[in-house]
Design brief:
Number of strands: 17
Strand content: 15-25%
Number of helices: 15
Largest sheet: 8 strands, mixed
Low-confidence stretches: none
Bound molecules: zinc ion
Shape: globular
CATH architecture of the largest domain: 3-Layer(aba) Sandwich
CATH topology of the largest domain: Aminopeptidase
Radius of gyration: 25 Å
Oligomer: single chain
Structural class: alpha+beta
Length: 500
């Protein structure tokens, strides 16, 4: 409460100060408004049907041992049959069992390598939710929606995450190949088989190959941010292209409480269970203070100048209003995820019998780590908090990773992403962003100068909820624009030419 009163006072003060702005926030969007000479093509005949078809392959990732070889085989055959130009013209290598690395060689003058990443696998569909789907989750059905002014939707798992990107990249390469386009720089494409379970048998194997061969990339473009509509305070009506310039890390920790148990007829007031629950409740106060990490600083410099006057003056006087701003971010779960090393209990276990006070309790917690914090820092904080309640903390499993390094948003390769956005989505603002979840690109750490995470599609809150959720869908128009974006992107990064 105290924090809230303080923040309100600061707001009043900031508004007063804002009447005479101390800092003038200047828009930097013109940076990306440089017109490009890139061209786009009408969609290839049947492109939307190929996306719909790709959804019907149930390429589900659940556990490494549960890989459905036959389905992935069939999906691979579908790609070969659908994109003869690509498989004819590019060098294709298969890794692990079903992961592909494609190479579109540049000219003799090539000095750079660029990598596009997408994944073939999808998450499973919760059976209990199937009745709520407007079309079968693996149907690839078209559903028209005249009320929303949308020509049609394609439904199913993977329409957003991430077969749309994979198929859009294929469509782009296929139509560029028909046009006789020749990239000057080398273009690579990695299509992993197990991104949804960490990428160890897919992208990580390709990354190991690149490491062994000494193949390094100037820039990588993977999934991650989207063009968000209606979710950024102060920019409700403006689409914003959120290009991930970093992604959060991952650590799970097991916290154990041991305390003499006994007969439940004469219990102590304190037990292993009360300690474990007190610890779990204390997690809500956070392990660390909230903060704006480097990618969020970029987000603020890109978007604050575009906001209405009141919000702009709050951002312009950050030296006064920082606590207020952080407070605003704590009001939503995305805001908290962007500004915190999140900490949440995900598994809890204790007890063996209803009339026995257990001698131990175990809580497993998961943290997504901000750039600037290390997994060791996080473990240390867990240990300190656990100690307060008489517990001990150890890493839970081997799947842990620090946050990625933050890529440059001043580099020309980032500017080109912004230019491609403005080319295809002229009404959108461009901004760096912090990717909250993990992507296959983390497996390529150390192999690229810059790594960007962005899926070129405009999504409102409802569509975002479909990712890993119910009614995942893409509009046909949205898919066509993805192809346009990649068409421009490949021309800009590869500096290639069409035949005279
Ligand atoms: Zn994905």
């Amino acid at each position: 409460m105290k924090k809230y009163i303080l923040s309100t006072l600061i707001l009043v003060f900031a508004v007063l100060v804002g009447l005479v702005p101390l800092v003038n926030l200047k828009s930097i969007q013109s940076y990306y408004e440089v017109p490009t000479e890139a061209v786009v093509f009408p969609p290839l005949r049947g492109s939307q049907d190929r996306l719909a078809k790709s959804i019907q392959f149930e390429t589900i990732s659940q556990h490494p041992r549960m890989l459905d070889t036959a389905t992935f085989d069939a999906f691979g055959q579908f790609l070969r049959a659908s994109y003869p130009g690509v498989f004819d013209m590019l060098e294709v290598d298969t890794f692990s069992t079903h992961t592909y690395l494609l190479h579109w060689p540049g000219t003799e003058a090539a000095t750079k390598n660029y990598l596009f990443i997408a994944h073939q696998d999808v998450v499973p569909v919760d059976r209990k939710s199937i009745a709520e789907w407007s079309a079968g989750p693996f149907s690839g059905d078209f559903v028209t929606d005249s009320t929303a002014g949308v020509e049609g939707w394609i439904y199913g798992r993977g329409t957003l995450d991430d077969k749309s990107a994979l198929i859009a990249l294929m469509e782009t390469m296929e139509s560029l190949s028909y046009s006789g386009f020749q990239p000057k720089e080398h273009l690579y494409f990695c299509f992993g088989q197990d991104e949804e379970i960490g990428g160890k048998a897919g992208a990580a194997v390709v990354a190991a190959h690149c490491r062994a061969k000494g193949l390094r990339f100037d820039a990588i473009l993977d999934e991650g941010g989207i063009i968000s509509k209606g979710s950024i305070p102060g920019l409700k009506d403006t689409p914003v292209a959120l290009v991930g310039s970093a992604e959060k890390g991952y650590l799970s920790v097991e916290v154990t409480f041991n305390l003499a148990g006994g007969h439940s007829s004469m219990p102590n007031t304190e037990t292993a269970i009360t300690r474990a629950t007190a610890f779990t409740n204390a997690l809500n106060d956070g392990l660390f203070q909230s903060e704006f990490s480097a990618p969020l600083e970029g987000f603020i410099t890109h978007l604050a100048p575009e906001m209405p006057w009141a919000l702009k003056s709050v951002f312009a006087n950050r030296f006064l209003t920082e606590p207020l701003l952080l407070n605003i971010y704590q009001q939503s779960h995305t805001g908290r995820a962007l500004t915190n090393n999140t900490a949440v209990a995900t598994m809890i276990s204790s007890g063996i019998k209803d009339n026995v006070v257990p001698a131990s309790a175990r809580v497993v917690c998961n943290t997504r780590i901000l750039p600037g914090t290390t997994p060791e820092d996080v473990l240390e904080r867990y240990a300190a908090l656990a100690a307060k309640f008489g517990g001990t903390a150890t890493p839970y499993n081997t799947i842990s990773s620090g946050a990625s390094p933050t890529s440059s948003t001043e580099h020309t390769d980032f500017v080109k992403i912004g230019q491609a956005v403005k080319h295809v989505f002229p009404e959108a603002l461009v901004s760096p962003y912090l990717t909250i979840g993990g992507t296959d690109s983390k497996n390529f750490e150390g192999l690229a100068k810059n790594t960007y995470r962005f899926l070129p599609i405009v999504l409102g809150a409802e569509e975002v909820g479909g990712i890993h959720g119910t009614n995942e869908r893409i509009s046909v128009d949205g898919f066509n624009k993805m192809v346009d974006f990649y068409t421009v992107m490949m021309q800009l990064w590869s500096a290639g030419k069409f035949p005279e």
